[in-house]
Write a structure and sequence with these properties.
Largest sheet: 7 strands, mixed
Strand order of the largest sheet: 2-8-7-6-5-3-4
Number of helices: 12
Number of strands: 13
Bound molecules: pyridoxal-5'-phosphate
């Protein structure tokens, strides 16, 4: 007889975003740019100096300083995590109690509801508008009706690629007393961050990651930024050595490279813009087949695609991976050459009206 797993574990499956290997990977919102050689050498040098027999700095002071320096904030309000994913887990498990209600939005990042479910929280899902935007007034009302203990959402949003501007986020923060977690994983591609005003709100946590604009998805390094009380609690509640010395050393090296980081983000913004324009042109040539839902504030384009499944499979057969959702496709920017290859493949696939290609 197999071991009797409890209810919440029974139907879980390990996260495996994509099986197989593909030449062009536009499915995970990673940066398409590897580190330049000189910087890569400096990273290796920093890693070489790590004392592997010693535990890491549990407060990750150096890398938190470097992170705070890049954004011009105080390191006292920074907690490092093993990716921001881990920080979502720490927040949902520690700032909420079993039976509390956390509000998420649909569509949004799936990990919020995943961790909330593991920690036996009630998840109340506030629907977005028909155009996938967020109506702040409706969201505020929903949180109050649900007696929410916390609200968590990504801004700009993964997967929709849309952003909620500062004035709307300010309204949400000032009208709600519950904990508000703003996941700004993609805010390096937009200019509406709440980081500069965070100190005005004692109920807010901003999450940041090195996995997207900074091109360090392999390293697992994310940060939570919040006021003194919350930061103290976060540092106390996380596992002591959550961020390893190698991640800290790499992060410290890269986060000091302000010009490099800004240039890379700018290149990814440009890439996304031309990808968006290319897809928009295709959508005009093939009405109703593949339609960007709006101008992206991220490094990816989100598209309505009634036969998402067919397009997704046809791209995989050409060794191009993108992310499929029911009736939608999410396409991350690649290098200019990768974007060109994608657009050409899409053009062929959309021109095939026999529906036999897969
Ligand atoms: C990618 C992503 C993260 C996870 O980042 P890690 O630091 O790699 O764990 C968090 N939030 C959103 C919305 C993301 O898309």
């Amino acid at each position: 007889m197999p071991y009797p797993l409890n209810q919440k574990l029974r139907d879980l499956v390990p996260y495996e975003p994509i099986a197989g290997s593909y030449q062009i990977r536009l499915d995970a919102n990673e940066s398409c740019y590897a580190l330049p050689d000189a910087l890569h050498q400096r990273v290796l040098g920093a890693v070489g100096k790590v004392a592997l027999n010693r535990y890491p700095d549990p407060l990750a002071k150096e890398v938190s300083h470097a992170f705070a320096g890049y954004y011009g904030i105080s390191p006292d309000c920074v907690t490092a995590g093993n990716g921001s994913d881990e920080l979502i887990s720490v927040i949902t498990s520690c700032f909420l109690e079993s039976g509390d209600t956390v509000v998420t939005l649909a569509q949004d990042f799936s990990m919020y509801a995943f961790y909330a479910g593991l920690y036996e929280l009630n998840v109340a899902v506030c629907p977005k508008e028909a155009d996938l935007s967020i109506d702040p007034q409706r969201l505020i009302r929903f949180c109050k009706e649900q007696n929410a203990k916390a609200l968590i959402f990504s801004n700009p949003c993964n997967p929709t690629s849309l952003g909620l501007d500062r004035s709307a986020v300010r309204r949400i923060l000032s009208e709600l007393d519950c904990l508000v977690i703003l996941d700004e994983a993609y805010m390096d591609f937009w200019d509406q961050s709440m980081l500069p005003e965070l100190s005005e709100y004692d109920n807010c946590i901003i999450l940041k990651t090195c996995s997207k604009a900074f091109g360090l998805a392999a390293v697992r390094l994310g940060f939570a930024v919040a006021g003194k009380t919350i930061t103290r609690a976060m540092r106390a509640a996380k596992s002591p050595y959550n961020s390893d010395s190698i991640a800290q050393a790499i992060g410290t090296t890269i986060l000091a490279e302000h010009d490099y980081l800004r240039d890379r983000a700018a290149a990814l913004i440009d890439g996304t813009k031309s990808l968006y324009e290319g897809i928009l042109a295709l959508s005009k040539a093939h009405p109703g087949r593949l339609m960007p839902i709006g101008v992206p504030c991220t490094n990816f384009v989100y598209c309505k695609a009634p036969d998402a499944d067919r397009i997704h499979k046809a791209l995989l057969s050409r060794s191009i991976a993108i992310r499929k959702f029911p009736e939608y496709l999410r396409i991350c920017t690649g290098t200019p050459a990768e974007n060109e290859a994608l657009l050409q493949a899409l053009s062929q696939i959309l021109s095939d009206t026999t529906g036999t290609e897969a």
